[in-house]
Recover the amino acids of this structure.
């Protein structure tokens, strides 16, 4: 799966949230000031070329839909972060967040309970 730029990733978040739609639909999801229609259309074409979106022509406009599920993208993205920054160790990642006080003791207890009951 090809890496996304921050702009592409932001648009994919909108696509996953909205579902199938048209360029105008996704453009409306951006906060003001919204990017130009042509900018959104260009990013969509790049996402389609990278295999993240598929399209269907209706008259003279395309409807787009995600080809990659958000869970698959998240999993691959997190795996890359763990591999690149935490020596491929999820334990190291959790330890890092605990030391940085991004995870509380209660958070860690809840994680342990989730692991026990999966």
């Amino acid at each position: 799966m090809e890496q996304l730029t921050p702009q592409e990733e932001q648009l994919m978040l909108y696509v996953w949230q909205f579902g199938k739609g048209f360029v105008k639909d996704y453009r409306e999801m951006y906060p003001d000031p919204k990017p130009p229609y042509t900018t959104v259309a260009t990013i969509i074409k790049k996402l389609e070329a990278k295999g993240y979106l598929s399209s269907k022509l209706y008259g003279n406009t395309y409807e787009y839909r995600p080809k990659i599920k958000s869970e698959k993208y998240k999993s691959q993205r997190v795996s890359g972060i763990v591999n690149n920054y935490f020596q491929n160790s999820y334990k190291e990642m959790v330890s890092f967040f605990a030391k940085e006080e991004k995870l509380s003791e209660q958070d860690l207890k809840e994680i342990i309970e989730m692991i026990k009951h999966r």
